Amino acid sequence: xxxxxxxxxxxxxxxxxxxxxxxxxxxxxxxxxxxxxxxxxxxxxxxxxxxxxxxxxxxxxxxxxxxxxxxxxxxxxxxxxxxxxxxxxxxxxxxxxxxxxxxxxxxxxxxxxxxxxxxxxxxxxxxxxxxxxxxxxxxxxxxxxxxxxxxxxxxxxxxxxxxxxxxxxxxxxxxxxxxxxxxxxxxxxxxxxxxxxxxxxxxxxxxxxxxxxxxxxxxxxxxxxxxxxxxxxxxxxxxxxxxxxxxxxxxxxxxxxxxxxxxxxxxxxxxxxxxxxxxxxxxxxxxxxxxxxxxxxxxxxxxxxxxxxxxxx
Length: 313
Hints:
Blueprint: H1 2-28, E1 38-40, E2 50-54, H2 65-73, E3 77-80, H3 105-120, E4 126-131, H4 133-144, E5 151-155, H5 166-177, H6 179-188, E6 191-193, H7 197-207, E7 216-218, H8 219-238, E8 248-254, H9 262-269, E9 277-282, H10 297-310
Parallel strand pairs: 2-3, 2-4, 4-5, 5-8, 8-9
Antiparallel strand pairs: 1-3, 6-7
Helix pairs in contact: 3-4, 4-8, 5-6, 5-8
């Protein structure tokens, strides 16, 4: 009993310490209250499994609240971090011009390694769910620290923009070769609209969703995301992991997704041994597009059911 109590105290202390440190850092950055990291922590005398939930680009940790509440009910501690560059003060949903300075590929790498250290210290089994950009972060964690997780679900993970994202790919390629020219050009481009306000407002009226995330973001932030995803794919191609230490993954993505590149998803998933991965292509009736919180109720329920069944819940 003494050992169990010690482990419990260590796990709860680790989680509460992380929550406190992130709260302090987010206060220093003046992150909006409703866009801060979320934690669901059990205080009873048991070793609990841990769920990591990573939200999408332009969104906020609350995008994953439905998953958080369900995992907590199933006995999990839950960690829902705020992605780099998100939650900064906005003007009518438009991200500030300096967002790109806070979501460099190095910022994602820092968050990845911090999460790995904190999760290593916890005693329960770890799983993860990542959506869009959060799916790329989770993939990075799985590949860089495969010993941490048992399983993960990736919802429309962003590894490259869809075919209509030619401009973004071109900007990124030009920036790689001529950063001294392209960085000032990209900074002058201003914000890019990524979220349909009318769709969000309609879903807010239908389901009561509040969306404190961004509607538009600076071009530099989007190019940084493309750079991070491209670097992740390059690292995965350059180093092979073995079947023995790779966690199992399930990818759920729409057959006509207009945001993420399906070929890039196939390329990344192919890095996993056949027995350790699967892809669920959603039909037109169950499709992840734009933002998870903007999906109609039946699609969200379907996605939740697919996710929970993969974890045996």
